[in-house]
Amino acid sequence: MSGHILSRSVVFLYLGMLAGCWSYLMPGSVETGTSWATVGDYPELHQLGYDFVITSVTADRADWIRTFDAAQAAGLELIVGMYPPPYRLRHGEWVITRKGIKFLHYAASRAGLVKAIFVFNEPYRSEEHTSELQSH
What we know:
The chain has 136 residues and is α/β, with parallel strands linked by helices. The protein contains 4 helices and 9 strands; from the N terminus they run βαβαβαβββαβββ.
């Protein structure tokens, strides 16, 4: 199994520990998740007490279905994005691709599984010497 343990309330967990308030460590009191696990890991993650998985899917609809079905079968929620990013910067304006729009509609149709949709926060950078935008 791969990934990192994440928590929605890491700061509160840390502050609770400092204050000697261990109630934050009680099972079920903090949602926990992991990132970049394979769909084959989902049942084990649920058995271990995980609530969600952070993952990305490709532009292939079959990948969306496989990922969402696996999460549903395992009783997990998803924080999911799409890679490569389904958006482009055109003439200074962000545009979502057709595939990106289809993915958003698919995710909306399975909203009970979706904790959040994420986008990669640095798809473009400015070239240091020319100020031209460069894609990663």
